[in-house]
Amino acid sequence: MEAPGSSKKMIATQEEMVEAKVPLAYRDQCAHLLIPLNKCRQAEFYLPWKCSSERHTYEKCEYELVMERMLQMQKIREREAQLKSQPIPLLPKTANA
Question: What is its subcellular localisation (predicted)?
Answer without folding.
Answer: Mitochondrion inner membrane; Mitochondrion intermembrane space
